[in-house]
Amino acid sequence: MRRLVIVSNRVAPLTPRKVASAGGLAVGVHAALAESGGIWFGWSGQVVAAPGPVRHQRAGSISYLLADLSESEHAGYYGGFSNRALWPTFHYRLDLATFERAHYETYRAVNRRLAGELARILRPTDHVWVHDYHLIPFGRELRRLGVANRIGFFLHIPFPAPEVYIVLPWHRSLAEDLCAYDVTGFQTASHTRQFVDYAIEELGGELAPNGDLVVGERRLTVGAFPIGIDVEDVQRMAASDEARRNAQVLSATLQRRQLVIGVDRLDYSKGIPERLLSFETLLKEHPDWRGSVTLVQISAPSREDVPEYQQLRTTVEGLAGRINGRLGAAEWTPVRYVNRTYSRRALAGFYRIAAVGLVTPLRDGMNLVAGEYVAAQDPERPGVLVLSRFAGAAEVLEGAVIVNPYDTDKTATALHHALAMPIEERRERHARLLSSQRAHDVHNWRDRFLRALAGLRDGQD
Ligand code: ADQ
Fold first, then answer.
1. Looking at the whole model, is its pTM more than 0.85?
2. Helices 24-36 & 442-453 angle (0-180, nearest 10)
């Protein structure tokens, strides 16, 4: 039988219980492997003095293949090039990007080393699915070793507009890497178009009549494969005892005030300071809401050793303190800012009692929190999703109140309307949101990508 081999930066050997507390990529990858079984290969999360051979571990039908990184590999490949060059550039934050040749060379060297480790155990019929920006060169490195298997790549973050992408000093080489795959998938049609435009303009590529991209000797399938959530799973979590307990505890502290919720990794792409400013504007422009609405912002710590993230944390803490100091009262704290992770069940409980899910990234590949918020609602008394137009989710979900998070005043007005929205409109929007999320759930994402990787087109068996 054909094996599926998944490659991602971080591999966490997951028991079914642990999957329940993991986020986006991990849940998606696990869903992709759980059904058919297969191999999950990547970094173990360990940084060691001298990395030894890869380790094997097994859990259920999945074999994990774990590689350690040395300190200098970790600093150049992960902390350096991935998180300080690719991540900011692809999220349009050129002001935060650092381009260092040494980081780039380590990034390529780690991809080469890991590809060599995988090539040793590949069988000719294996299908290989590589994930995300840490591993863009991985496929070309496999090709250099003579691997002729079907290899696909999925980018979880946006592919930026060509005029932003070409700022990367190594844009050409990385784009050629993306062309070494049989299938290169993006979250949305816009990201796909931006990559194709770049490939035509800068690499002399062209589109074949069937939509394939042809660049020199390479011919590949490119397309949008929007990732989603497991809707039933989130609904079950929202109905669990753990969710109810957490929701009750939070609810009791709110004292009948409406809840606005924000949940993200603490990352500058998520627009958290802008969100706080919009909430502050709401309270200033519509003083009736003072004392009757609370924003709970839950931010999971992320990349804490990167200076830009430490700076963001200080900014968010300062803003929350300022809003509470200027607008709060002894009996009411407008913003509750929490810097920790919660279990996915507890989050589902919080989503369910929130009148508004405020999902306002400045840029986001997709954003799974939007889908989780929708799935956790009670369809009879649903809350309202306020969603940034710059999240991939805005191209997929129908029925959200769409905002430009840079426009503080209009976002505040949208929040005002969302809080005051009549129940009929809430139900109607929620029904549309749920059915569009179901049409793009995680199973659909996996199936469509794996069919494309097998060389099949939509509608073909
Ligand atoms: P992320 O940038 O991590 O993912 P997102 O899609 O929102 O963003 O996924 C985050 C996940 O972490 C969600 O499942 C959420 O519930 C969870 N999470 C966030 N804060 C948490 C907290 N405080 N406690 C516990 N869990 C928390 C990247 C891309 C996205 C893309 C995904 C999947 O940046 O655009 O949607 O990959 O492709």
1. yes
2. 60
